[in-house]
Hints:
Blueprint: H1 2-17, E1 38-45, E2 49-50, E3 53-54, H2 59-71, E4 75-77, E5 83-85, E6 100-104, E7 113-118, E8 121-127, E9 132-133, E10 135-136, E11 146-147, H3 152-163, E12 174-178, E13 195-202, E14 205-214, E15 217-227
Antiparallel strand pairs: 1-15, 2-3, 4-13, 5-12, 6-7, 6-12, 7-8, 8-9, 10-11, 13-14, 14-15
Amino acid sequence: MRHFLLGASFLLSFAISGCSINNPGPEKTGPEPEPPLTFAIRDSIFEGSYRAIKINSQNDQVFTVLEKYREEKLVSYLGAVNNFFSDVTDLKGRIASFDYLVLDEKSDTDTGVQIQLESGKVKSIKLNNGKILTQWPETANLENAIHIGDDSEIIYGKLVTLSKQNEYAHKFQRIVLSTKYTYALYDPVKASLPWTFIYSTQPDLREEVQIHFKDKKVAYILVNRFEKK
């Protein structure tokens, strides 16, 4: 998981480094599309909306729209970021959208816990030292411990309970949610970065999009359109 977090941060840096004043779109990844597409026009949107994403809308509203497009296989994403929390109650209603939950102290420890999620349920549990667990904490009673198969609502309730117990509270100093399709919804530094993605309209059309935020609201949207010549 440490490697996953580092990789995610690197991927975000890579995606951002591909942006400049002259070419604000994300770097292309993978092979060129067939047939190759040529830059057509750049739109700067400061009012109105782009594909149901409205100027001045909240970033969590944008997240909901983009997740819908992802499920419909209309968008692909560049970059990944991790969302950091210091209060377990901030996880309420959010766990189901992510693929990993990490609990640890202010710095990494061998006993930091990594919980892998799938479809909002616990898929696996292990410690940073590689030890595989059937429940966490190992010493907690069955009712309070997190188990494989627990769904997001059960997980949240157990996390709140565990965070209040002295023997486990230190593992809630740093809480991280990560996902393959993640945006910086909650981290105050990363939340100021633009979200970049590719919207596929037709085989011969593509839109590379950047959503820029200010105070967690959409400030403006840049769209680079490519088409077959």
